[in-house]
Amino acid sequence: MTAERRKTGRITGRMMGREITEHGVTARDLGLIGCAECALVQAESRARCARCGARLRRPDRASLQAVWALLATGIIAYIPANLWPMLVTRSFGRVDESTIIGGAVDLAAHGAWFIAAVVLIASVAIPLCKFAAIAWLATGIARGSVRGLHGRHRLHTLVELIGRWSMIDVFVVAVLAALIQLGFLASVAPGPAAAPFALSVVLTMLAAQRLDARLIWIAADGRAR
Amino acid sequence: MSDDDLAEPRVERPRRGARLSVAWLLPLIALAIAGGAAWRHYAALGPQITIVLDNAAGLEAGRTAIKYRDVEIGRIESLAFDDDFARVRARARMDGAVRDRLREGALFWVVRPQLTASGVSGLDTLLSGSYLAVDWGAGDGAQADTFAAAPEPPLTPSDTPGRRITLRAQDGGALAPGAPVYFKSIEVGRVETKRLSADGRMIEFDVFVNAPYSDRIDARTRFWNASGVSVALGAQGLRLDVTSLAALLRGGVVFDRFADAAAGPEDTAAFILHATREEAADSRFSENPAAQLRLSVAFDQSVRGLGDGAPVEYRGVQIGVVEAIAFVPGAALNTLQIVATLLIQPERIGVIDTIPESNLAFFQRSVERGLRARLASGSLVTGALYVELVDAPDAPPERLDLDAKPYPRLPSVPSTLDALRGRAEEVLARINKLPVEELLASAIAALDSVAALAADPDLKRAPQELTGALSAARGMLDGLAEADLAGDAARAMAATSSAAAAFENAAAGLPALVRRLNDAAAKAESAIDAYGAGSSLNTEAVAALREMRQAARAISTLAQTLERRPNSLIIGR
Predict the structure, then answer these.
(1) Which architecture, in CATH terms, is A59-224?
(2) Would an 8 Å CB–CB cutoff place A37 in contact with chain B?
(3) CB contact under 8 A, A92 and B30
(4) Any idea where the domains of chain A sit in the sequence?
(5) Highest mean pLDDT range out of A40-44, B123-127, B498-502, B555-559?
(6) Domain coordinates in residue numbering, chain B
(7) Structure ipTM
(8) DSSP label at A122?
(9) Using CA atoms, how far apart are residues B23 and A10, in angstroms rounded to an integer?
């Protein structure tokens, strides 16, 4: 839905000396900007919100650079997270180190298919999909793509919503390490992969957050700055 | 609020086409960290080595660690067979820090639970699984990447302070690798290996003695074998020594220093392992070649009982040993002499001159003063002999024959031994020659005649004749009485009774005779017993004795009759 299209159609009201059609109007169309914190709509020329004082962020494709940077860092952190052991189990003097995928394979080998699937989905599938999704959204914005705007918007919402669930692995490790400390009999410690994994999840969440959904639509307006 | 109502002027910054966000620093930092970690990983990644083992019992690829002082320095990555399936090759990735230590001589072994005579080890591996331990060895070999695993852990880690020495023994006994080494009953080391010497004549032991006890080892140190139990029966009674349980099972080595021992070359690495403490103590005389003197002695008589190693004594003190006994051609043609070589240690008799010539001169003078060698009996039971040096001042003068071969000849005197032996033999021969059989034969004959006498019908008839004579005499008396010859008759009666008294006297002598015969029989019996049952002599003798006893009984009966009624001889029963 482009800006031109919003000017056509049935007039349903007026605002700031301008006719509002049935296709609605954007703050941008009216030279206004909404505060991301308190949702106050105000003049686009302001630097800070007139009500809450938060910095007003204009939709800017330059912000995509931060998305890309965060995403790249997240992917880099994801590599050691999978190569290094996530969990170090000591039992009767034997030390067992298991990586995320290795642990899932072990679980599957013991017949725990459901848990193996949960681990694989939460720790492997979701992060990988998130990387792909964020990269695709960012590329779409950068190229000014006007296709599948609704789908992309929904994907963005989904990525933001589901991102935190990737931390399930880190939580499991944290809980196990806290619970199973039976000395020589058995003890569990987080492996060196736990930190990069958590970092990767946090960075991708930040990347998703930094991805300004408004840019998806602005691209459709064809006049994104 | 009026200020806020005013639209703030928006400052438009000039736009540059490709402005870089500071956010790009983040992935750069991440890359730097990741790169650093990777670089560190690969830098620490040490060399890959191959350990060749007999079997891979307890080893797991990717899990079994290689440890040095219980710190992990590597891990086995894969296990495979070698080409002919005879051994297992374990590929291991070592820590980079130990790269320089991987040299020839480094020793790997598998640590497993072990139960040995000296204790239990490796119990922790029961739960944690086996691991490979390493000893770097001397560390002066060439760099290597293939190592053969040792079947047993080295008894002494290569960096243990101490000293490794070799012990040589004729017979190792029960001494086995791992046996303890004691110094004044403190365990100070271990026997590491046991092997045959290169020439195959001795047993060699590698022994490691820990510092600081290794400082106790010098040329005056003597080693001896301490089997677990030693029993000594001496003047103090029975003595039982038990060193330790470990020594009981695997033997042990004890060493000590003998202050007066001859000092051999310093820094010697090989010692003799003596069989007993006594031998070790004795060795302090025998090991100094300069203080040894060899003499020879020729003996005329048999040297049976004189063996190699038999002591040479002077006034009861051992001063040497018999080293060899051999035949050498005698002075006369086609004669042989028995010559014993004596190894004399003059130190023992206080001659501490270490110059052989002066020792020889000492013996020369002694021989001129009457020193002689002779055989003496060490034990009457075993017949063992020894060589005794005696002072015989009244012996014909002789000299030490310096030209004799192989060693200077010490004059000998006949031993008292032969005289003693000869006399004993003579006594035995005389006993052998005793005419026992003739004696018995004549005794039997004598007894036979006694028996014949007793059984003689004439003798039995004698009382009857006497009775007849008496009745005749009575008749005569009657006649005489009638002829008033009673007085004469009474005189005749008195004569008769005196005759009876004489008979009685004779009868009284008979029991003594019987007793004597009995004694003789008993004596003969015991003599015959000595000859043993079953011999013909014995049976004959028994028969003779039986007859003798019968004769004695007959005489005894006669004697009793006579005693009871002496006049029965005259007047009949």
Answers:
(1) Up-down Bundle (1.20)
(2) no
(3) no
(4) 1-58, 59-224
(5) A40-44
(6) 44-148, 162-286, 291-423, 436-571
(7) 0.73
(8) I
(9) 45
